[in-house]
């Protein structure tokens, strides 16, 4: 698709204008074994922020101890007067909308609670852009039902964009998505025993 041009043979016979198609909601998946899935998704979130979209970020696996650079950036930007809403929720520290976290919280239950909250917000059209980081794993582990996910994504109201990341995306998730990118590892510094680095991994 050079310079944003679309192959005229690829245009669907849906009666929509180019402008109307540009307003359609996008379902995106970044998957694969290579580095860069979350990085790509957060790049899209940054573009959404620039368009003054309300953003909801839900991290389904990452530990609360893991200090994500993008979180620091969005926290800073969210403090700017007139800035769009950016909500950041982590499963590992107990979802922020749940007042009390029980000791020894069941991660499967926490993942299910997170997905139910995302579903509720999608139905209410609470955000313009959702980033479900490492969302493929609770699906793979059977904590979240893939058929429920696909039905929710297909039938969500409005023009809400949903971007999901994680390895081994379920074939049904790939099928329902509009945009799927697979990150394939060619080389990685960790293959040579190097640890994660500031400014690269966090």
From TrEMBL:
The keyword Nucleus does not apply. The keyword Transferase applies. Keywords: Transferase. It is an enzyme of class 2 (transferase). Its EC number is 2.5.1.17. It holds the Pfam family CobA_CobO_BtuR. One of its GO terms (biological process) is cobalamin biosynthetic process. One of its GO terms (molecular function) is ATP binding. This is Cob(I)yrinic acid a,c-diamide adenosyltransferase.
């Amino acid at each position: 698709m050079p310079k944003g041009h679309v192959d005229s043979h690829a245009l669907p016979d849906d009666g929509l204008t180019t402008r109307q198609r540009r307003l359609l909601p996008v379902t995106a998946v970044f998957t694969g074994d290579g580095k860069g899935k979350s990085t790509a998704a957060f790049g899209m979130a940054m573009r959404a922020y620039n368009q003054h979209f309300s953003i909801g970020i839900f991290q389904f696996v990452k530990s609360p101890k893991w200090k994500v650079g993008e979180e620091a950036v969005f926290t800073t930007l969210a403090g700017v007067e007139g800035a769009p809403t950016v909500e950041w929720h982590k499963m590992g520290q107990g979802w922020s909308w749940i007042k009390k976290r029980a000791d020894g919280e069941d991660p499967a239950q926490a993942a299910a609670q997170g997905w139910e909250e995302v579903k509720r917000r999608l139905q209410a059209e609470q955000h313009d852009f959702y980033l479900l980081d490492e969302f493929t794993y609770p699906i793979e582990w059977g904590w979240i039902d893939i058929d429920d996910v696909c039905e929710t994504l297909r039938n969500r109201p409005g023009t809400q964009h949903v971007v999901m990341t994680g390895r081994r995306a379920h074939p049904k998730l790939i099928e329902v998505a509009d945009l799927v990118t697979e990150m394939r590892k060619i080389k990685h510094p960790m293959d040579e025993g190097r640890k994660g680095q500031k400014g690269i991994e966090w």
